[in-house]
Structure formats: structure tokens, C-alpha cells
Amino acid sequence: MALILGLDPSQKTGWALYDTKAPLSAIRCGVLKIEAEKKAFERNAGMLGRALVKLLGEYRDPETKRIILPDFAVIEKAPRQPAGQYGQPRKAATVKFMGEQMPAQDGDEAESAGGGLQSTLSTNQMAAALCSVLGAYGVPYEAMTSAEWRKPAYGFGTRKGWGRDDWKKHSREMCRQMRITATNDDMAEACWIAFAGKSCDRFRKMEHDRDQARAA
Predict the structure, then answer these.
(1) CA 77, CA 79: separation in Å to the nearest integer?
(2) Angle at which helices 146-154 and 164-177 pack, to 10 degrees?
(3) According to the model, what pLDDT value does residue 100 have?
(4) pLDDT of 86-115, one tens digit each?
(5) How big is the CA angle at 116 (ends 113 and 119), to the nearest 5 degrees?
(6) pLDDT score at 61
(7) Which residues of the chain have a pLDDT value below 50?
(8) Which of 105, 15, 2, 20 is nearest to 51 (CA)?
(9) Do 80 and 100 form a contact (C-beta atoms < 8 A)?
(10) Which residues contact 42 (CB under 8 A, 6 or more apart)?
(11) CA-based angle 17:45:15, to the nearest 5?
């Protein structure tokens, strides 16, 4: 058994907890809600970090009362640059981010939450806040682009002609088929982000190492 936490960072961050030994219908999910302030990136990120700390503290061993932490976490990787004109991704060899010019990375051409610089900066700070909390708790995690987690979750990572609404509709339909209780888009996508975690090389190595240790 392994417990995987899926996180879809934004001002309404979807979360999901997936027990790899339980049926998919048993996935628990919700939203980390904050009272976001426009352009107050650092303040919003701080509130989101506290919301994740609160979530992690809710799951405790009934006897020892100790927090039961996820074995692994997956966060959707925030885009490093905003979408271009008319929603088309910008194709660039480098991108200026946080005052530093750096090479464009895999996933930089993915769609951003709102298509603009402000939403791109906000999403990156939200993702960083989540990673900081996981790091402080010692929870190993992996950041995956939307295409990277969709492929193991749906069987395909891209689909010609599909936009954000199509992907969100698909995530909700998949949850319905698997009888997962997800009442909004943020929850639904977080469920499949968590599910994709067991396909990560890092997670599989962790499982292999743990099995080897038990057998020794």
C-alpha cells in the first residue's frame, strides 16, 4: 500500500489522496481554498501553504494520533511562460522568469491557467508554496506537466483540438465512470494527477527499494 497525494496548484488548489491498494472509487479529494488577493502572490502562497499544512494534519493514526503523511506526492508543473496571443503557446528558446533569463523547459509551452503573465506568476508561486510544505514534512514528490500526467491517467497526453474546457470535462467524465466523488474540475483533475503518481520513475524506485528492504 502507498498513499499518493495529487495537487493541482492554483488559487483553488485541487487535492486528492489515492491509496494504490484501494479501488479508484475510494479516492478522497477536495479543494484547498484561500481568500486570494489580486496580485498579492506572496501572501496568497503563504495562505495556500498553511492550508496544505492543515490538510496534512487531518489524517492521524487512531491509536498514536501521529500524522499519517502521504508516501509520495505529485504536483502539476506550473508553466514557465504565459500563453501567447489568442491562446497560442509562445515558442521561445529562452524565457525570462523572476528576473532571470533561462532556457525554456519541457512543459513551458503548456497552456497556463489564465493565459497571461500574472496568472503564470501566481501559479508558479502557488506550486512553490506546496513544494516547500512537502519538503519541510519530508514527503518525496514529483512535478509533472499536464501532458506527462495525462498520458498514464487517460492513455493520451495530448489531443488535437482540445482546450482547457475539453480536458476538464474529460477528467469529470473519467471520475464519473470510476465512481469517484469529485464535485468540481479542480478535484477531478487532482484525482488523476494522484493516480498518475504510481507511474513516476521516482515512485517506482521507492517501491522497489522498500520491497528489497523488506525482503532482506
Answers:
(1) 6
(2) 30
(3) 59
(4) 344 445 555 555 555 555 544 444 443 445
(5) 50
(6) 78
(7) 85-90, 105-114
(8) 15
(9) no
(10) 125
(11) 15
- 95 φ, ψ to 5°? -145, 140
Reported pTM: 0.82
Q: How far is CA 145 from the centre of its chain?
A: 9
Assess contact for 128 and 49: CB atoms under 8 A.
no
Separation CA 81–CA 94 (nearest Å): 10
**What are the Cα distances from residue 118, in Å, to 36, 44, 66, 108?**
13, 13, 39, 15
What's the pLDDT at 101?
58
For residue 129, the model assigns a pLDDT of 95
Buried b (16+ CB within 10 A) or exposed e, 20-45: beeebeebbbbbbebebeeeebeebb
CB atoms closer than 10 angstroms to residue 122: 25
